[in-house]
Input
Amino acid sequence: MGADEQIAEALAPTVRAAGLEIWDVERSGASVRVLVERAGGVDLDTISELSHSVSAVLDSRDDLVPARRYVLEVSSPGLERRLRQPSHFARCIGQTVAVKTAEAVLGSRRLEGTLVGANDSEVELLVEAEGQGAQTVRLPLGSVVRAHTVFNWGPPPRARRGGARSAKREGAVVAKGAGAAKGAGAARGEGGAKGAARVANTRARGDSPWL
Output
């Protein structure tokens, strides 16, 4: 079991207790990124509270957190989420996805189409090939360099008189430890996360320097 899977397994009970589900875990060096979701979306208050709980779990697991210092980010996957595992593809069947492949397919290494099938070894895309119409392409997962869902934003909204539109969007807020908030959900200081989804956590035993 790899480092990402070990962290996901350790955090799963805590994330489930918060009514959420782990979408993905990525560890790169001393950076630990935890992506969570639930039906209807995830608000920033929930992410902030979860970041405290996740940090507490990682603080107690020396085998999971590198070099006694780590940067933790807890966030939602967003509207255009990265697809890294077979389960990610299986859960996104019927959606539009963009894929970059190791070698050219239909004359290009970049494909975009409807994901129509997925299993543990390959995915199937329905793509529009120039001059050839719609075609179903089978891609071994080993040939997929990067993939993500594509959100159709639709036409731009019409401007209103007397003011600009405002919009809320889902995502991660940033913090390094505890301290006074800077702006909407950003905090910096020493200790655990305060109203934020990214935490720089320094262990009491020492301080070591940090895809």
